[in-house]
Amino acid sequence: MRCPFCQDAENKVIDSRESHEGSVIRRRRECLQCKRRFTTYERVEELYPLIVKKDGRRETFDRDKLLAGLKKACEKRPVSADQLEETVVAIERLLQGMGEKEVPSSVIGEEVMRRLHGLDEVAYVRFASVYRSFRDISEFMEELKDLLSDRTRELKPPRPAGKDG
């Protein structure tokens, strides 16, 4: 591992710990040349399915692209980097668990939407506006109405079962 500051290959590990439920090892290192410290992450190389885009193209799954999309949707929102990383890890697990060689991009898009809905409603709407490619404001308003009706259902207490029905 080369030092990101001076490019020297000689360094020592100062601290190692598991993160993200044991799927990643975080290592704190110190360069023996310039004495600066940096962090590396080690993870098992995973085999992911090809992602089939709407136009039929196939791409390899790219966790960085997924994380970048989540960051963009959550920009200036109260969503932590850990929450974004947990979301990416959960989607990676979903893809691996499917055991398929190819997966439609819609599977990832719908899962991101589902998870953002629980994390932050503004981020959800931002992502939905790009993902769903709304043709006009009325389609966008329908999505907002659905979101508001979901929120209203969550806030209403359940009606007690009574004799009056």
Automatic annotation (TrEMBL):
The protein's role, per its UniProt record: Negatively regulates transcription of bacterial ribonucleotide reductase nrd genes and operons by binding to NrdR-boxes.
Cofactor note: Binds 1 zinc ion.
Family note: Belongs to the NrdR family.
Lineage of the organism: Bacteria, Pseudomonadati, Myxococcota, Myxococcia, Myxococcales
Highest taxon of the lineage: Bacteria
GO biological process terms on file: negative regulation of DNA-templated transcription
Required co-factors: Zn(2+)
Occurrences of domain ATP-cone (ranges): 49-139
Segments forming unnamed zinc fingers: 3-34
InterPro entries: ATP-cone_dom, NrdR-like_N, RNR_NrdR-like
Gene Ontology molecular functions: ATP binding; DNA binding; zinc ion binding
Keyword set, alphabetical order: ATP-binding, DNA-binding, Metal-binding, Nucleotide-binding, Repressor, Transcription, Transcription regulation, Zinc, Zinc-finger
Name of the protein this chain belongs to: Transcriptional repressor NrdR
Coiled-coil intervals: none
